[in-house]
Amino acid sequence: MGRLFNQMTRGKKKLFAVSALGMMGGLLLLPVLLSMTAVAGGGGAPAGGPPADVVAAQKAGAEGEEKKVEMGRDVYYKTEGPVIGMPAPITADNETYYPRYNFESRVLLWVANQQHLYYGSFVLAVPIFCMCIEFAGMVSKDKAMAKKYDQLAYDFIKISLTAYSLTAILGGILIFTFLTLYPAFFGYLSGIFRPVMHIYALMFVAESGTLYIYYYGWDKMREGVLKWLHLSMSVVLNVIGTTLMMLANSWIGFMMSPAGVDEQGRFLGNIWHVIHTALWNPLNVHRILGNMAFGGGVVAAYAAYRFLSSKTDEERAHYDWMGYIAMSLGVAFLIPLPFAGYWLMREVYAYRQQMGITLMGGLLAWLFIIQATMIGILFLTTNYYLWQALGRMTGGERFQKYIKYLVFILVVGLLVFITPHTIVMSPAELKAMGGQQHPVLGNYGVMSAKNGGINAIIMTTILSFIWYQRGNRVPTVSWAKFGNIFMGCFFVVAQINNIWLACYGYFIPANVRIGLSVPQVAGTLSCLLLMTPLNLAMLKGARPLGPIQWGKIAPRSQYALIMLATAFTWMMGLMGYIRSSVRLFWHVNEVMRDNSPWAYTHTIGFAANVISFNVLFFWVTIMFVFWLGTLGAKKVPVTAPAGQPIPSPQPATGH
Q1: pLDDT one-digit tens code per residue, 383-401
Q2: C-alpha to C-alpha distance for 195 and 44, rounded to whole angstroms
Q3: CA-based angle 308:313:315, to the nearest 5?
Q4: What residues have CB less than 8 Å from 623, skipping those under 6 apart?
């Protein structure tokens, strides 16, 4: 009877806890739901304006008269709507519109915006990682492995908690910078997005509340139904975070490809048109993939930092494993990122062909050569880390003799990928070469060759991952021989198809050549989406050659992880600059002109210096965040069973 009474008491406590948390979550989300309902209904009456009694008097005086409503035509959707907002302000080069502070205002805004973007990307990605890792632990049948996954997810969210506070601080600094340096532009933009501004603020509050409950409720919600409730809170947290990112992307999309306004920039009453611009969807996909890859790189760098500073084998084992998981998650989103970038560029061309030419073949073309170099560094570093990681596996040495062939493919693909079509030269150099295009190398600068180069690099990286999965295991399924032959033939055919299409592109018109990227991408994605699951199926019940010796890896592999994260950071800064610069001298493209003294495109050297400063500043501050994360860490001794490798340690939570 006593045991039954205790079970009933525990059941009531769990039910009460679930009800309380559900009620709290509902209260957090209720303002957001009410606000979204208001927007769906038209957003209510405009904010401000005359008092209610004055409005009533005006309506009474105008009774019997036909009310005239001015109509405007949407610059993108070409639909008509009632003119509600004011036209975009026509600014002038004076301190009223562009205050001076003895420094270029655009650079100050650039730094504030980029730092907020870095931290925002990080705190968006890490909770998604936590959700995936926590779920993997919950469905794992191995209790020890489940505990390791749970601890790893907790380590991830602990890192992001301090970063979340810095994100909020940087957001406040960014708004203050806008208000101080660009008051007219910020006033116009906030007026256009007024119907959803309160939703953004309320969702930020809801995200903060959910994050803190998720973090501080970790210990109290470790088992049973409470654990599933805890996981569901991570789902809610990520839905809110992704929605916030999409709302922020709508501001960027509106500045690049405005919609929902007429030629004068007047709001036409449809906030969905303002949000859903021509570039909103590709921006969302590209940004979320980039954020996830960036977040994985930063967490991997944190693990590398802890690995290099560890004093015991147990710590090195834990942070080696943590770095591998973070790197794998980051690279999993890096692989489709170039395809999302191609989609974004295609939509830019479709919206305004001149914008596409400015990006890829005009003023900003050389920045894409730098971008291609950074992408090549990312993939080379990823492959190098995987080859180093084979050293911690018994049996991994059997793949070492093939690495030189992968290096050859990677290097050739990278050299083709970074080759410019035209070169900036002096008149004497131009005369000596006979034109801006090199008679031989210039052929590799066209998009047909570049598509072939990047697809070859990606397929090689996928193959390195498959080799790593097989590092210490040998397939024992009955169809293993057939599976190996099929996989080998599939990769060879996909690579031949990729190279043939790259060469065939030289013999067809440019508008047809662009379409060849589709079968090239299809071949690469098939290697990823078909061969990786096939390899996992072949490894089911595989014969192990030996244990994975976590922590037994060369320190240079950890420097590769730090290099990977730094390259991610630099490339994010570069792409932000490119995306902003394509508007040239417009605040809002073709709607609101930038008449400040800084309405020009910086030189590549100056832009590179500012990007490098942003990268350095971010890493100095994130190292401080890493250091804070070590202050509350408590270590629990880990003992390995006889004859078994040292497992990843289980540090105490240290709440």
Answers
A1: 999 999 988 888 888 888 8
A2: 9
A3: 60
A4: 305
